[in-house]
Design the sequence.
């Protein structure tokens, strides 16, 4: 499993962006279309895909693709 | 100057009081009041140079950027009607580059013959219950819409507002207007998605006020838990609007922010903010409050809430829409409700969404609340045709939001609701249909 690639693919598909356009370091505010509704969809699709639950205390810090990837890697150990 | 536009006058007076104070912050850009007023006059020149004159309509894409604010006030300066276009709608708006504004010379003088009763703004309703309509508001209306709100929430020039709601609708737009007319500072943020950024902004600029929809609060709470309490002694007021807040949400906010004035407006695009309830008024939390100001009158005609006031629209753009829009000079909101003996207004639901079960009126909101009180995460109720009764209630329950079965919900509901109000049909739904402002879209489920 490649967490980075799969996370990018899921986020890009929710945002309806070509995956290669998604900058891993970009803050969500700088990515077009990444609003609160889509962020909820991203959270839920990532949880379902990786069969995980983001700890409520950590969600606050998930503000970029990179942050999502690191969090999933941490949970998956 | 600009006696026809009390809103513009107020902004210019704020500039005269403190020209070097920051009016707008957007990203790394900080704009003083003197620059704001200069750019408004430059935007007026640009609009005029494109052939617009008083009484014409300019369609502006209401993007949350300083250049839109210049164009909005620039149009007001000329008496050019500003029709707000939702930037996400794909509708075509007047095209310009921000640089074009800056390259213009500031306009001199003012047009003659303009009045504060002239239409200056056209907003589109969200079409919660019917087809979207175009609402015409005068200089006078938009000034009082902002002024009444400002007076109620007690905004002043010391305040710093973060504007996160869209500004193509009345809720967010008036937050911008009221802050600038008071000489306060406005910080523009694109949306609520990055709650960490919102909180950093509140901290960095010592934000004291903002407006939000209940759905936005639900999101902020999900992402940040109770972190908002960090600002409990900093936030002077929060204004909620666009949809109802569940009672539990109101109580929770009062506990989290005991020192913040938390106000919730009730109003339509046509009537602007009509009523306000302050969440610390815990005895009246089931109501939408009282009329927002002395100049706003609320009457009930045949069970329907009707409004008259300085902020109430001139009328709809399409004359067809104006048929039955007013009764005895009062705007018909389409909401059912009543006024209590102590002057509070209680809503019973949308007149056009009320479900007539054998002739008895049922509010879908009441049934939805009763179902949610059983431990269901969310639901939406609509009318369903019935051979004998005409209509009955059909409930869509949000999938995965409860452990209860339909049978269990039905049994429990029958002990808390009159039988005719209980749904006769249940169905799971993957997602509750809401519009961009978080309002439940019942008509979407009724095939209308």
Sequence:
């Amino acid at each position: 499993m490649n967490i980075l690639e799969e996370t990018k693919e899921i986020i890009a598909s929710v945002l309806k962006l070509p995956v290669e356009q998604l900058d891993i370091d970009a803050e969500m505010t700088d990515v077009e279309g990444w609003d609160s509704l889509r962020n909820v969809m991203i959270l839920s699709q990532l949880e379902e895909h990786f069969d995980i639950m983001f700890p409520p205390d950590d969600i606050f810090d998930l503000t970029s693709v990179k942050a999502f990837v690191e969090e999933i890697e941490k949970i998956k150990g | 100057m600009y006696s026809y536009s009390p809103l513009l006058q107020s902004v210019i007076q704020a500039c005269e009081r403190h020209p070097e104070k920051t009016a707008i912050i957007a990203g790394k850009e900080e704009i003083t009041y003197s620059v704001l007023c200069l750019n408004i006059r430059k935007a007026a020149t640009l609009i005029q140079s494109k052939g617009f004159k008083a009484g014409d309509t300019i369609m502006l894409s209401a993007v949350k950027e300083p250049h839109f604010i210049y164009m909005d006030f620039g149009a007001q300066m000329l008496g050019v009607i500003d029709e707000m276009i939702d930037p996400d709608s794909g509708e075509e708006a007047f095209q310009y580059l921000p640089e074009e504004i800056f390259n213009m010379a500031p306009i001199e003088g003012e047009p003659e013959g303009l009045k504060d009763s002239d239409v200056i703004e056209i907003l589109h309703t969200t079409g919660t219950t019917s087809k979207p309509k175009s609402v015409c508001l005068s200089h006078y209306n938009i000034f009082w819409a902002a002024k009444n709100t400002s007076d109620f929430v007690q905004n002043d020039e010391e305040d710093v507002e973060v504007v996160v709601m869209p500004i193509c609708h009345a809720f967010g737009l008036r937050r911008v207007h009221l802050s600038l007319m008071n000489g306060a500072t406005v910080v523009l943020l694109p949306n609520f998605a990055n709650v960490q950024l919102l909180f950093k902004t509140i901290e960095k600029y010592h934000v004291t006020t903002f407006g939000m929809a209940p759905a936005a609060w639900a999101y902020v709470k999900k992402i940040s838990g109770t972190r908002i309490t960090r600002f409990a002694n900093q936030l002077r007021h929060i204004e909620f609007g666009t949809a109802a807040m569940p009672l539990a949400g109101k109580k929770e906010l009062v506990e989290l922010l005991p020192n913040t004035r938390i106000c919730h407006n009730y109003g339509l695009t046509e009537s602007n903010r009509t009523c306000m309830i302050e969440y610390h008024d815990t005895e009246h939390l089931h109501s939408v409050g009282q009329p927002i100001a002395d100049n706003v009158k609320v009457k009930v005609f045949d069970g329907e809430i009707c409004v008259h006031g300085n902020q109430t629209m001139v009328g709809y753009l399409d004359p067809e829409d104006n048929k039955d829009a007013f009764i005895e000079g009062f705007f018909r909101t389409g909401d059912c409700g009543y006024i209590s003996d102590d002057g509070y207004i209680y809503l019973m639901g949308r007149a056009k969404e009320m479900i007539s079960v054998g002739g008895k009126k049922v509010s879908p909101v009441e049934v939805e609340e009763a179902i949610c009180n059983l431990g269901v995460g969310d639901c939406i109720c609509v009318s369903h045709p019935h051979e004998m009764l005409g209509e009955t209630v059909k409930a869509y329950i949000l999938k995965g939001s409860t452990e209860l079965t339909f049978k269990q919900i039905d049994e429990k509901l029958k002990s808390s609701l009159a039988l005719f109000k209980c749904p006769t049909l249940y169905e799971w739904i993957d997602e509750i249909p809401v519009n961009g402002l978080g309002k439940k879209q019942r008509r979407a489920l009724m095939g209308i």
Summary: Chain B touches chain A through 16 residues (CB under 8 Å).
